[in-house]
Structures are given as structure tokens and as C-alpha cells.
Amino acid sequence: MSTVALILVALSTTMSVLLSVRVGALVLAAGLALMALLAHLQRGKRTPWRSDLSDVASLATLALALLALALVLP
After folding, report:
1. Integer Cα distance of 33 and 50 in angstroms
2. For every residue of the chain, which 3-state class applies, written as one string?
3. What residue ranges do the domains of the chain occupy?
4. Cα Rg for the chain, rounded, in angstroms?
5. Closest alpha carbon to 32 in 12, 8, 57
6. pLDDT band (50, 70, 90) for residue 1
7. Distance between CA atoms of residues 51 and 49, nearest Å
8. Which of 7, 29, 36, 44 could connect to 60 by a Cys-Cys bridge, CB 3.0–4.6 Å?
């Protein structure tokens, strides 16, 4: 009986860790996408030392990479 309980606890813990990593990656990707949108909306109001699209492109690339990572995770 205790072996079955131990297996269930191990399975539950493993699934919780896997799901929390996926959810965390999705939330981070969504946050980066919102930051890219904000950078796109504010780029006309500021004078950056680099090109206007560099912030938007880098944040959007990071968001897409994290989204792909979240979808690939087991």
C-alpha cells in the first residue's frame, strides 16, 4: 500500500514540475510579447541610440522563442 502511495506522490510531483515549467514559459512569452507591443507603440516618442525597430524585433524574437520552447516541452 505504501509503495502505491509513494508512486502516486512521485507522479504528482513530476507532473506539477513539468506543468509549472510550461506555464511559466508561456507567461514569460506573453509578457515579452506585451513588452514588444509597448516598445512598438512608444517608439515614435523617444530617440533611441539604435534603430527604431531593434527593441521590437529583439523582444518579439524572444517571445516567439519562448513560445516555441513552451510548446516543445514535454
Report:
1. 20
2. CHHHHHHHHHHHHHHHHHHHHHHHHHHHHHHHHHHHHHHHHHCCCCCCCCCCCHHHHHHHHHHHHHHHHHHHCC
3. 2-72
4. 19
5. 57
6. very low
7. 7
8. 36
